[in-house]
Design brief:
The chain is mostly beta strands. It contains two helices and 58 strands.
């Protein structure tokens, strides 16, 4: 046996109380929230743009840290979950003998002082009408104990005292014999960095701190478990980095240290009487016989390279269950269970969810020898998903645990509107299993945005199924969306017929943009420079102009007049389609600039197009906005403004006439990405005030569509409260 422990928020507290690191997608630097909040608040003043509420697809989540059963048909499990806002919230669910059902739990207020990582780590239910749950949360870098109680109908927060002189504290485990007696243990920090174990007792009304002795020489102690059989007998266990394991006995008046073998360590503990307790150690187990602790070995699974039993529950002196995880020779982490028969420990086979890359059992509770419930989580990617397993006396079986919806990275890449009551926005999000990226489509009906069901190709080894990059609608009954997929060619396309999206076969590699003039003509541009055309029945490949290695955007005024932009021959980053062939077009570089990049093009007519993007300013050494106009003969550079304090800008565009275009994008302010909008009135470009979510490190608009000069919709990506990518939709002029 090597190693034991629990994965929880408190581990991070006692290890250093480090602040969360926030990351975001940026133009040239990682996001930071402080400046985003300051600049974002300024941009919200007198804005002509409005942020619209847009939905986000979710993935199942949850992590069960502890479970307690008062009967075979009455169990409660607690833990944590990443909510749909991307922040940690407490989790509790109840087993009624048939199914697991969610229970609402309170969380510390997050309005005046931001809290982080609330987590329930221990639970004890002596009856079906009373449970006590404990854990911790953080304010800045300070850990605070968290205690909650179940009264048979709802959970409520309990006041919990902080140890005298503590600078940080958190609870790990709790054990109750009735609604009027519980013992909880935890760890607290004092000035100078010393960490010690502490205990507290519940008398049915309030929590009161107790003195829990720590072994002489201890400066870094971790409380691991507590188990009570009466108000006059409890065992508390843990370990000290400096002097090793410890155990203490509660006699109804005081806690007394006990002698323990130094060879196994002391983790979570389970007692069924004053003469029998079992504790999981780092190299086996410790058994209490009423007078002394003795070591008992626990075998490892065949083929394992490491094992970690996390907790234990005993129904009687002849039956205990311990659960955790082990690593096999291939590096897979699998669930682990071992049983005590009164004489020795034996490993039991446990099931693992199909496709899981990581499975662990964190908790177990046995109401009787033939009825145990275990909880934990599994991972298909990096997101934990709640896991429950049951023991019926002969086998372990997976149960459908409640898996609360959790935040997932959502992104909108493009939008197309045909009226004030119909728009389509497309992008991508992780599928519910978390194994692949799938398409995302949302529709506007004039009142709200709603997620639509979209088909996706079969999963490939790459993990990508379908990610949509462009969309074009000619009516509420016809849209084309394109992108990249797991198909052999790499291209992906879906068609909207007014009621449903359907997959289409499309040749060539990944597609970046699409433009439709009718239900019988669409043109799609490829990231590798190729072009596909839709004729109302099927997609077919058409060559691009010679020398183009990639295309970022395409816009068609008619089947005989299209403009595409991308990376072409030297000085030619645009090309024109006459219905039969392509011709490269010269795209001038602004004076004093270099390295132009055209990201989008929009044509209001055959001789009226706008192309936008960015270029490098040789004088300011910054990336700045770019706009060029096509008059049917040549491209000319237009002067574009850049936001004050910008360190880099980029644009995408939509035009309804030669004198009415709206461009959106982003700019880099210090280390934060903020939304950007500019309007062309036929004479000059002007920056528009546009709102940003003040808590977000990124506010990026990836596409825009204008029905009229006063009715534009932009779509992109921002961060939710937990700094997870979320959809962003704004409307304005």
């Amino acid at each position: 046996m090597r190693g034991w422990g629990r994965r929880n928020a408190w581990d991070g507290l006692v290890a250093g109380l480090a602040a969360c690191a926030l990351t975001a997608f940026t133009v040239a630097a990682p996001a930071g929230t402080a400046l985003a909040a300051r600049v974002g608040a300024r941009l919200l003043t007198h804005t002509t743009w409005t942020i619209r509420k847009s939905p986000n697809a979710t993935v199942p989540g949850g992590q069960l840290n502890a479970v307690s059963c008062s009967a075979a048909s009455a169990c409660t499990a607690v833990g944590t979950n990443i909510s749909t806002s991307g922040v940690n919230v407490t989790l509790a669910e109840r087993w009624n003998g048939t199914s697991w059902q969610h229970q609402r739990t309170p969380n510390p207020p997050n309005d005046t002082v931001p809290i982080r990582s609330p987590d329930l780590l221990g639970v004890s239910c002596p009856t079906s009408h009373f449970c006590a749950a404990v854990g911790a949360y953080q304010v800045d870098s300070v850990g605070i104990s968290l205690a909650e109680a179940w009264n048979g109908s709802r959970w409520t927060r309990q006041s919990f005292p902080a140890p005298v002189g503590s600078t940080s504290a958190g609870l790990d485990q709790v054990s109750c014999t009735s609604a009027r007696f519980c013992e909880a243990v935890g760890t607290y920090r004092i000035s100078g960095g010393k960490n010690l174990a502490f205990a507290a007792t519940w008398d049915g009304t309030s929590w009161r701190l107790q003195h829990l002795p720590n072994r002489v020489g201890s400066t870094f102690v971790f409380a691991a478990g507590v188990s009570c059989v009466s108000p006059t007998f409890c065992e508390a266990t843990g370990t000290s980095v400096e002097v090793g394991p410890f155990a203490a006995r509660w006699n109804g008046t005081t806690w007394l240290l006990q002698a323990v073998p130094e060879t196994t360590g002391m983790g979570p503990v389970s007692c069924v009487s004053v003469t029998f307790c079992a504790a999981i150690g780092s190299n086996g187990s410790e058994m209490w016989n009423g007078s002394a602790w003795s070591a008992q070995p626990i075998p490892s699974p065949v083929g394992s390279t490491s094992t970690n039993l996390r907790t234990v529950s005993c129904a009687n002196a002849a039956f205990c269950e311990a659960v955790g995880e082990y690593t096999d020779g291939s590096g897979n982490t699998l669930s682990l269970a071992a049983t005590w028969n009164g004489t020795s420990w034996a490993v039991q086979p446990t099931p693992n969810p199909p496709g899981a890359t990581f499975t662990v059992l964190d908790a177990v509770s046995c109401a009787e020898a033939a009825a145990c419930e275990a909880g934990g989580d599994f991972q298909l990617t990096s997101n934990p998903v709640a896991l429950a397993e049951s023991w019926n006396g002969s086998t372990w079986q997976i149960q459908p645990a409640f898996r609360p919806p959790g935040a997932a990275a959502n992104n909108l890449s493009a939008v197309s509107c045909v009226s004030a009551v119909f728009c389509e926005a497309v992008g991508s999000h992780p599928e519910r299993s978390g194994l692949a990226t799938v398409s995302l489509a949302e529709a506007w009906n004039g009142a709200i945005w709603k997620i639509q069901r979209t088909p996706n190709p079969a999963r490939a080894t790459s993990g990508l199924r379908l990610s949509l990059a462009g969309v074009s609608c000619v009516s509420a009954r016809f849209c084309e969306a394109v992108g990249s997929s797991s198909s052999a060619a790499g291209a992906g396309a879906e068609m909207w017929d007014g009621s449903a999206w359907s997959l289409q076969v499309v040749p060539g590699g990944a597609l970046t943009s699409v433009s439709c003039t009718s239900a019988t003509f669409c043109m799609a541009a490829g990231s590798d420079g190729h072009v596909d055309i839709w004729n109302g029945t099927s997609w077919s490949a058409h060559p691009s102009a010679a020398g183009f290695t990639s295309l970022s955007s395409v816009s068609c005024a008619s089947p005989h007049s299209c403009e595409a932009a991308g990376a072409g021959p030297s000085g030619d980053d645009a090309e024109g389609w006459n219905g039969a062939s392509w011709s490269p077009q010269a795209t001038p570089t602004p004076a004093g600039g270099s390295s132009i990049g055209i990201s989008a093009v929009s044509c209001a007519g055959p001789g009226s197009c706008e192309a936008v993007g960015n270029y490098f300013s040789n004088s300011t050494f910054q990336q700045v906005t770019l706009a060029e106009a096509w008059n049917g003969t040549a491209w000319t550079v237009q002067r574009t403004p850049n936001p004050a304090a910008s360190f880099g800008s980029s644009l995408l565009v939509s035009c309804i006439s030669a004198s009415s275009c709206t461009a959106v994008g982003q700019y880099l302010a210090s280390v934060s990405n903020l939304s950007l909008a500019e309007v062309w009135n036929g004479t000059a470009w002007h920056v528009r005030s546009i709102p940003n979510h003040p808590w977000a490190g990124q506010n990026i608009l990836n596409g825009v569509s204008c029905g009229t000069s006063q009715n534009c919709t932009a779509a992109g990506v921002t961060d939710d409260f937990g700094q997870i990518s979320a959809t962003l939709i704004e409307t304005g002029d």
